[in-house]
Structure formats: C-alpha cells, structure tokens
Amino acid sequence: MPKKVLLLYISEHSGHHCASIAIEKALHSLDSSIQTLNLNSFNYTNPILEKVINRAYMGVVKRRPEIWEYLYDNPKVLRNTQKLRDMFHKFNTGKLKPLLDEFAPSAVVCTQAFPCGMVADYKKSYGLAAPLVGVLTDYAPHSYWIYNNVDRYIVPSKETGKKLEDNGIEAERIMSFGIPIESKFGYYDKDDGTLRRNLRLDLDKPCVLVMGGTQGLGPIKDMVRSLDRSAIDIQLIIVCGTNKRLYRHLERGRFRKKVVVLPYAPNIDKLMQISDLIITKPGGITTAEALAKGLPMLIVNPLPGQEAMNTHFLLDEGVAVKAESPEDVVVILGELLYIKNKLADMRRKALSLSRPSSSIDIARMILEMV
Description:
Layout: E1 4-9, H1 15-30, E2 35-40, H2 41-45, H3 47-63, H4 65-71, H5 75-80, H6 82-103, E3 107-110, H7 113-126, E4 132-135, E5 152-155, H8 158-166, E6 174-176, H9 194-198, E7 207-211, H10 220-229, E8 235-239, H11 244-251, E9 259-262, H12 268-273, E10 277-280, H13 284-292, E11 297-300, H14 306-317, E12 320-323, H15 326-338, H16 340-353, H17 358-369
Parallel strand pairs: 1-2, 1-3, 3-4, 4-5, 5-6, 7-8, 7-10, 8-9, 10-11, 11-12
C-alpha cells in the first residue's frame, strides 16, 4: 500500500505554500510511489472567512503595522483568545474528518501554525494515528505553535529549537533541518553570461535584485526611484511577485539605469545567482533561498513580528544589513559595493549558515516515520 502524506498550509501566495511545495517535491524525488495532497487548509475549512482575514491582514500590515506588532505572539492576547481558538479548532476538526477519513494519510505535515493546531486537536479528539509534523518557516517560533500532539517540529536553526524547548517542547521532538526550499537553490552553476545577456544587462556591472516577497510588499517604488537617481553604478532586477499594480507602474517607468522589471518569476534561483546583493523583506523562504545562494541581504521595512525577528537573527549572524528608509538604501548600498571585502565576508557567512538540503532532509525524516 503506497504511503500518503497530507501537506497543509494557508494562503496561496505565501512562504508557507512554497515550503509545502518544496517538501512535496522532495518526497516524490525520494519515493516515486508516494501519494501526496497539498492543501490550503484555511480555504478548505473556511473559504469565505479566508478571504476576509487575508484582506484584513494585508490592510493591517500595510496601514497599521503597530497593531500587528501588538497582536503577534502577545501572551496576553494568547490567553484572552484561548477559548475562542479552542472553539474554532473544534468547529474545523469536524470539517477535516471527511478529508482525513477519505485520504487516510500516513503522515500530516503543516507549514503554518493554524493547520498544525487544528490537526493536533483532531488527533486528541479522534485519535488520529498518523504522525503530525510542524515545519517552522521563520527563525523565531511563536506561541501558537505549541501543542502536545505534534510528533516532530522542524526548525530553521538550533537557536529556534532552543526557544521551543524554553516553551516546554521536549528536545527529542525538535529537528534542526532548516527552512524547506527547493533543491535548485542548492545548485551553483557558474553563470556564463547567458541570462544577463538575455535580460540585456551588462556582464561586468554590479547587479542588485529587488524583491518584496511573493506579494511585492514594501517601499519598492521609492527605493527604485532613489537608486535610479543615485550616482552608484549599478543595474537592477525588480521582481514584483503578485503585485500587479506595482508591476504596471514600474513597467511604464523611464529609468536612467538599466532596470529589468519582472512579474512573478519562476527562476528566482537564477536571478539570485547573477546578482551581487538582494534588497528585500526578510520573509523566511526568501531568506533561506538567499542564504543557499550566498547572496548578501539589505533588509528594508520588515513587518513587525516574524520578519522583525528574522531581521535580528540575520543581523546577528552578519549576513545582512538593515536600512531604515529608502534613502538609507542608497547610502548603505554604496558602502557595501565600495568595501568589496564586506560583501565577500557576508557571502561566506551566508553559505556557512545555509541549509540547501533542508527539504530532502525533512522528506527523508517523514518517510522514516511512516
């Protein structure tokens, strides 16, 4: 009988989804007979509420980020919402039962805390025997991950695991494999100039990659304007993700420097490889991909909560620098490109911190559990 793995995430255009895809691909590469189901759990159980919450979340992080900062991993909020969350989980576990009965998974893997809590409660209520694996995609865990019925936690680093231990999770349940990324980020093919030529970029001029996550968030327009007017001799690749408004705006723009504007790009690994530095928000997946490529990071406008915590980790490790404003980006970038040893040192540290085989290691562990 073939092994079956159910992968659960939330939000289609998210790092959680990217992580579940990376694990799914790794599972199939190790076992061609395995059956997988990769599901947006929130959309499955609450399709209308998912749209409402996604819109509310985006509105808060864009217009009132201080509210999200207050709500994120706040012990008081955690305590005050416990009964509501218990009721919500109980309501959703009933919706999950037909899915779990029909698919009958050998293991359940969650790349976000909401489905992980839902399945943990399901195991408690219905006695699900399949092991439950929680995969963290940020460097600092929050309290919504803490459940008794999670068989394994996959964490990005030993420091992350230690924080789970401080919250009562036994060390034997924690595995430090890194954030799951696709295996292509672990390959390094020396660029022969083909991609730069295809993008009409100079072969010998520094190339800066600008991203705002899968949704193209952050002050990208202001940054690009400041960089284009600067005296720094660079060229830019801007990936807008799913932000169609940003893409249309930049595509119509007239620039002094060579600027390549792309929508959602499937070849981010190649774009990272031909770049000298990335200016980005520090989402967990983007961070892990950049580390695997040895790409120094210039962080701008991290979201409160998980991205702010990721920023602290990256700054402490010496693989990133932070700009406080789009104007600061020009000054800091100029310094980094001028001090060649600084960029080389950041590259070495990034590669030493990277976990390019993370998804394969996670997939291998899952297969051993089932």
